[in-house]
Amino acid sequence: MPSLVAKEPLDGSYAYDPARDQHCSTLLLGALAARAAGRDCKVLGVASVDLFIPIFTYVFGEAQLDGAAAVLSVARLRQSFWSLPEDRTLLYRRAEKEAIHEIGHTRGLVHCSNYSCAMRFSNSVEQVDAKGDRLCPGCAAEMAVARRRAAE
After folding, report:
1. Burial level of 85, CB count in 10 A (0-12/13-18/19+)?
2. Radius of gyration of the chain (CA)
3. What does the alpha-carbon distance between residue 134 and residue 116 come to, in Å, rounded to a whole number?
4. Pick from 69, 65, 84: nearest CA to 125
5. Residue 142 to residue 104: CA distance in whole angstroms
6. 62 a catalytic residue
């Protein structure tokens, strides 16, 4: 499936919650899904703002399960968020893991119990660092099935 970069960034100001000083990822998903409407594609939004869903203090990302849209935030993936010296290589490695994770959800993959799998749920940056940047054999097999299904 080809990748495209949107020419215009998404204005997510409507998703901002001043009481939390965060953006609601579910609202951003709706706008991203609208961009994908009528197209045979997956949309991954990458945000620099801190994200939340009402039941969690924060999220690294959110996706529509077996849907078109996913969003991830690099805000808490940055070392500087935690008052540590910035490390671009570490940021990219973390963002890659979370991108794989969220796109996996758009292909129908659910959270995995394998500690090394990119589909493992992470509720801390330490858990992001601990998991792998690839799918485990079980999730990779599910992804292959999802790709075949999408190609039909």
Report:
1. exposed
2. 15
3. 8
4. 84
5. 10
6. no
- Out of 86, 102, 126, 142, pick the active-site residue: 102
Whether residue 80 is predicted with pLDDT greater than 90 in this model: the reply is yes
Look up the pTM and report it. Answer: 0.92
**Degrees (nearest 5) of the Cα angle 92, 95, 100?**
125
* DSSP strand pairing (69-73 vs 43-47): parallel
Residue among 41, 43, 12 at smallest CA distance from 150: 41
pLDDT in tens, 137-151: 999 999 999 888 888
Per-residue confidence (pLDDT) for residue 26, from 0 to 100 = 96
- Secondary structure of residue 120 in the 3-state scheme: coil
